Amino acid sequence: MTAQTDPTRSHRFWGRLFRWLCTAAALFGCLVLAALLAAVVWQAWGWLNWEFLTRYDSRRPTEAGIKAALWGSFWLLLLTALFAVPLSISAAIYLEEYARRTRLTALLQLNVNNLAGVPSIVIGILGLTAFVRMFGLFGNQPRPITVGFGPVAFTVQIPFGRSVLAGALTLALLIMPVLIVATQEALRAVPASIRHAALALGASRWQTIRYQVLPAAAPGILTGVILALSRAVGETAPLLMIGALSYVAFSPGGIERLSDLLSLQKLAGVPFSPFTVLPIQIFNWALRPQSAYHHLAAAGIIVLLLLLFALNAAAIYLRYRFRRRLSGRT
């Protein structure tokens, strides 16, 4: 009897020990995170107010704010989403639903998976060469080119230079492999029986994808999109590489209030304006020797964390809503 029960007790002991170690590791990580957050909040206390959000950066710490960085982050995130999301979802649908399993598609899939792990600084070098300088084909100075006719004409700068457009295209290259992989995983999670049933009822392949597969995969796709954009809004290295400014006292396109969004001239100037974003603004303040700028950097960190929390909360909410809709509940 003793010989039979001893192994059982030994297994229970090692199982409990492993559980305690995992619990201790999780608690340690949470405690370290809580300590860091408490230190940042303590350092930002008294500096994070409405004036901090509505003022531009200044040479005087007591008058500095993050208005330019907030607008720059907004436009950069919007343009990145416009470039990356449609292309990534379309590429994932092609690779998962249409492409035949050949050596070429296997090579494409391998490259996508590898690009998802490329360091962001490498993407920044690519963006500097391809978008900021355009391989030196058009010289070093941007040349204005008018596109359109009459009242809808606007000016395009070639090469793009150190502008919002160059930054958005660079970040789009950074998150597109991640979005493609996330979308493919969401499509694979849809049971094959749904596709077979739709095709058996006479639906075309596109109708099956449009009305059956994509709605079922929407929670996973939206979650991947928002998490990828959350990564983009916190990136610093690629934007430093392409030359985003660290001190900016204006908003891209001169848009400072919501009413300015009605001006087509200002909107057309946004993609080709110099810019800064929250991570670069925080990085710039943290490097300065004056302690007052360190308080500003802590306040900027709080704003950036709140923005990231909001994006992640939106991902959770959208996933919950789509799952309820798919389950037939209201």
Helix-strand layout with pairing:
Blueprint (H helix, E strand, L loop, with lengths): L1 H43 L5 H5 L12 H32 L4 H13 L4 H13 L10 E5 L6 E5 L5 H25 L3 H9 L4 H29 L3 H6 L21 H6 L8 H10 L3 H36 L4
Antiparallel strand pairs: 1-2
Helix pairs in contact: 1-12, 3-6, 3-8, 3-11, 4-6, 5-6, 6-8, 7-8, 8-12, 11-12
What does this protein structure show overall?
The protein has 330 residues and is mainly alpha-helical. A two-stranded antiparallel sheet has the order 1-2. The chain has two domains: 1-44; 50-326, MetI-like fold (Orthogonal Bundle), CATH 1.10.3720.10. The model has no long low-confidence stretch (mean pLDDT 86). The longest helix has 43 residues, at 2-44. 31% of the residues are buried. It is built from twelve helices and two strands.
Task: Give the tags.
330 residues; MetI-like fold; mainly alpha; globular; 69% helix; 2 strands; two-stranded antiparallel sheet; 12 helices
